[in-house]
Automatic annotation (TrEMBL):
It comes from the Bacteria. This is Probable dual-specificity RNA methyltransferase RlmN. It comes from Paenibacillus yanchengensis. Belongs to the radical SAM superfamily. RlmN family. It holds the Pfam family Radical_SAM. S-adenosyl-L-methionine binds at residues 161-162, 193, 216-218, 292. GO terms for molecular function: methyltransferase activity. Keywords: 4Fe-4S, Cytoplasm, Disulfide bond, Iron, Iron-sulfur, Metal-binding, Methyltransferase, rRNA processing, S-adenosyl-L-methionine, Transferase, tRNA processing.
Amino acid sequence: MKPIIYDYTLEELRQWMLDNKQPTFRADQLFDWLYVKRVTSFEDMSNLPKMMREQLDDQFRFVALEEITRFESKDGTVKLLFGLHDQHAIETVVMRHNYGTSICVTTQVGCRIGCTFCASTLGGLKRNLTAGEIVAQVVTAQRMLDATNERISSIVIMGSGEPFENYDATLNFLKIMIHERGLNIGQRHITVSTSGIVPGMYKFADENTQINLALSIHAPNDELRSKLMPVNRRYPFDEVMDACRYYIAKTGRRISFEYALIGGVNDQPEHAEELAEVLTELLCHVNLIPVNHVPERKYVRTSRNEIFEFQRILEEKGVNVTIRREQGHDIAAACGQLRAKHMEKTTR
């Protein structure tokens, strides 16, 4: 199939213009139509020559996503299920906060990491998304928000999939998002979350960006983490923590640790004590996440009192910690839940 126009960074579009004997400023005009005016066809790009519009239409696909369904929570969270050209489906979540609007994007169809508490892994990994398919999630959501004069101000790459197993596409997506001629999202308003793909963590540290890194840690030791996250058998706990230390030393930036609290599994006081010991003297922040119920999984949520006790122990040990505010609970906004329901329905 023809490539998606959103796959291309501005620098790549400028090169395309040169290859086609066109001035490079045409690429800047094209980029403006894509990300500032956010048109949905090449024909609408009125300041480009007609012959060029026809050539672009002949060589590139424009629309990458088809909205299958949309759910809106009482708290303003919107969950979108998008269909792709090959009949696969992905999820994107838009979250409204008192400090702005954020979007959670997906980087893969499904996931092979195998976290035992997550719906994203149900059915395994189908394929990587292209950079354009990731970009299109943001552009499509921004068009939706244009109607109410809202702007996406931050991005979290925490949807389905492991971004560091789709590294090049993720990096091109980031380059497009932060470009001042495009959506111009501030680097410090973007967070990439990884399950601990050690080579990707080192590589990302060396990219010299201001983009935030989050690690899904979910356990304070090697044995328990391997039970919850099979990827830990490939990249053991100590190696992951060494990569975290390298990232902090290389970038001077704080790293976030995502910790899903699972009733009776990783949420006891001894787990909090051990986690605090591991994180001592690290420039970091812990985000406690009460686990979402997934029908296909047997885990239960940690009680409210136990959540606060876990937080208290970490704070007492000098660890910076917050409890994630839940959003979209009434619309199954956790990663993979809506797609799993769609897969079950289409299979039937």
